[in-house]
């Protein structure tokens, strides 16, 4: 076997093995041939290498090996550094569900998970519309939403729901009904265990389109104003919110939710655009049970008015009715990897475009209701 052109050869006299090592090609197992396998011509070529040439060659090999070792060490350091950046330990379950009670939480659905959900709000438990006549509201459905959410990635979710719609203006003017709702939810930042990122930041955008039949205003009655829909765009309402949450400990989490809601068509004296601020918390009481609560406060001159404003607006003496913040409180139970919630709220609507502008139920008058959600998760 002839020695390849441009090759280097390392021969040790005390061994009956010759190693051929091609320049620029380093392998873990060099080609090894015994003396008997070498041709006479190859043996003559071997004798051309004197001790000095072999020493210089061995020195070059040693330097090359050191350079390779240094390069490999640098690569290992870089991999370890960036691997540490990428593989940070994120905070687990700031909230245990993607909804607290009325509001979204900072949580998102994992990638390729499909969550089919049915949400329900019953009628007033007490007050004029509750009590034993409606079995404490259980015989009445204030709002129902059926839909699904899907995790495009761990941080990006989409959702689609059909909701009955339940909000109304004081005096009986109904809000939008038969709502088709679509939302996009994106988690921009995520809290880490080491504190390098101290909070989680999530954005949610919701669009609601009313599918109810258009009402003709032959008699010009006020309660039919919203459902008149002079243009298709009048059927649409929007909500955009920024959710900033932090898990302070395993026992306490808190988030705030500044938001903007816009409705293209509203009743007289109402406002199309409403800014609001929300707050939500989770307090763990035991290993399996916790308290959850949320509240949403709209910034609106009309929604800060008392009954006298609406009495004058409608020309009705002793008018009863005004807007209230949407308040919710409940218990959360974790059993066998599943989370069950039992909650109560004065909000009748389930979607932000419904409960933020149209909550008129008063907790102090017993106008709160039981709510629950049934969820079934699928892997896709």
Task: Report on the architecture of this protein.
The protein is of the alpha+beta class and 380 residues long. It folds into two domains: 79 residues, no CATH class; 267 residues, Porin (Beta Barrel). It is 16% helix and 37% strand. The chain has four helices and 15 strands. The strands form two sheets. The chain has a twelve-stranded antiparallel β-barrel with strand order 4-5-6-7-8-9-10-11-12-13-14-15. A three-stranded antiparallel sheet has the order 1-2-3. The chain is elongated, with a radius of gyration of 35 Å. It starts with 7 loop residues before the first strand and ends with a strand. The N terminus is likely disordered.
């Amino acid at each position: 076997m002839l020695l390849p052109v441009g090759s280097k050869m390392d021969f040790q006299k005390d061994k009956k093995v010759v190693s051929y090592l091609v320049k620029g090609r380093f392998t873990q197992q060099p080609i090894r041939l015994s003396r008997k396998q070498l041709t006479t011509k190859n043996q003559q070529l071997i004798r051309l290498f004197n001790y000095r040439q072999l020493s210089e060659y061995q020195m070059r090999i040693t330097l090359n090996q050191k350079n390779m070792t240094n390069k490999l060490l640098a690569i290992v350091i870089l991999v370890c550094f960036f691997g540490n950046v990428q593989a940070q330990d994120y905070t687990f379950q700031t909230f245990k569900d993607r909804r607290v009670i009325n509001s979204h939480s900072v949580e998102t659905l994992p990638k390729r998970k499909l969550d089919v959900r049915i949400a329900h709000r019953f009628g007033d438990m007490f007050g004029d519309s509750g009590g034993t006549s409606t079995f404490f509201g259980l015989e009445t459905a204030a709002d129902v939403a059926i839909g699904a959410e899907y995790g495009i990635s761990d941080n990006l979710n989409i959702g689609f729901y059909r909701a009955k719609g339940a909000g109304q203006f004081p005096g009986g003017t109904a809000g939008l009904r038969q709502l088709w709702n679509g939302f996009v939810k994106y988690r921009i930042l995520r809290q880490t265990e080491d504190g390098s990122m101290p909070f989680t930041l999530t954005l949610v955008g919701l669009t609601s389109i009313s599918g109810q039949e258009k009402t003709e205003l032959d008699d010009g009655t006020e309660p039919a104003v919203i459902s008149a829909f002079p243009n298709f765009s009048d059927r649409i309402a929007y909500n955009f919110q920024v959710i900033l949450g932090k898990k302070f400990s395993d026992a306490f989490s808190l988030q705030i939710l500044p938001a903007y809601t816009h409705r293209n068509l509203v009743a007289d004296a109402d406002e199309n655009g409403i800014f609001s601020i929300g707050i939500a918390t989770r307090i763990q009481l035991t290993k399996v049970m916790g308290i959850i609560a949320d509240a949403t406060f709209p910034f609106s001159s009309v929604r800060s008015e008392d009954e006298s404003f609406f009495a004058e607006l409608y020309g009705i003496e002793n008018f009863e009715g005004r807007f209230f913040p949407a308040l919710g409180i409940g218990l959360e139970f974790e059993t066998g990897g599943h989370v069950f919630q039992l909650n109560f709220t004065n909000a009748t609507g389930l979607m932000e475009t419904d409960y933020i502008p149209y909550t008129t139920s008063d907790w102090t008058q017993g106008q709160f209701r039981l709510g629950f959600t049934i969820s079934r998760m699928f892997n896709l």
